[in-house]
Amino acid sequence: MPDRETGLPETRTRDTGSRSALDRRGPARHELPAVDEAGLFAGRQADRLVAAAEAARATRWLRYFEAMPDRLRDDEPRSLRQVALRARAAYGPKDSVRDVLPPEVTEPFLESIDRLLKQLNRRDTGAA
Q1: Angle at which helices 77-89 and 103-125 cross, to 10°
Q2: In whole angstroms, how far apart are CA 48 and each of 12, 44, 51, 66, 104?
Q3: What residue ranges of the chain have pLDDT lower than 70?
Q4: Which domain holds residue 107?
Q5: β-pair partners for 91
Q6: Which pLDDT score is estimated for 15?
Q7: What's the number of domains the chain is made of?
Q8: Inside any domain, residue 102
């Protein structure tokens, strides 16, 4: 059906599932080196956490964390905050990943997530 204003046929883009172009508001991730570095480091720590969950046969935590390494390495800043907050939520007072996995992997991951959130907050407030 033609567009009413232009008279040209409507063009619809197919939804591929990728949200990176749709969610981008502000600079791209590679334009924020501190955020990019923190995200990449958190992704490496998440890889270690996933490997430990596999080794411990902690299927619940494996399912919870298995997509995080790639998202931490690849997502744009807006989505990174969502992933980081989800990761942070695994350290709850009653039900925590700390109860199942060793501190050698849980604590460095938590520190890397906090560092990432700190960089994202600096970006949002305009601090250097």
Answers
A1: 140
A2: 41, 7, 5, 11, 9
A3: 1-25, 127-128
A4: 28-125
A5: 96
A6: 41
A7: 1
A8: yes
Cα–Cα dist 67/47, whole Å: 10
Q: Helix, strand or coil for residue 2?
A: strand
- Give the pair of three-digit tokens for residue 62: 């494996």
Could you give the CA distance from residue 41 to residue 115 in angstroms, rounded to a whole number? 10
Structure token digits, residue 101: 């996995």
Question: What is the predicted pLDDT for the residue at 49?
Answer: 97
* Half-sphere exposure (Cβ direction) of 105: Cα atoms closer than 13 Å: 22
User: Whose CA is closest to 46, among 38, 119, 120?
Assistant: 38
Please provide the DSSP assignment of 115-128 as one string: HHHHHHHHHHHT--
Global pTM reads 0.77
Q: What's the pLDDT at 17?
A: 46
For residue 50, is it within any domain? yes
